[in-house]
From TrEMBL:
GO terms for molecular function: nucleic acid binding. This is Transposase. InterPro entries: RNaseH_sf. It comes from Trichonephila clavipes (Golden silk orbweaver).
Amino acid sequence: MGISDRLVRRIAKTELGLKPYKLRKVQLLTEKNKLVRLRRCPKLLRWAVSQCWERFLFTDEKLFTVQQVHNSQNDEFWCVDTPSTSAIVQHRQYQKSVMV
């Protein structure tokens, strides 16, 4: 169209009153997940204090996932008011994947 990105952004801000917003990434939690987390917290705290984790060996592995990656640098939208819950990207903790 013969118009620069910067000019489009300037027009959107000054003349249209729009503001850029980025999508927020949140964990998809069900009520069952929340209860399980509450039950595990004391056990994990005791484990961390006991320093049993020093006996573990961490190796190099690669996890390939199926879920699309959310890139916060590229995913941006413009609106007049502050977005509500529509500006959320939900992701699952345990998605389909393969370890190589």
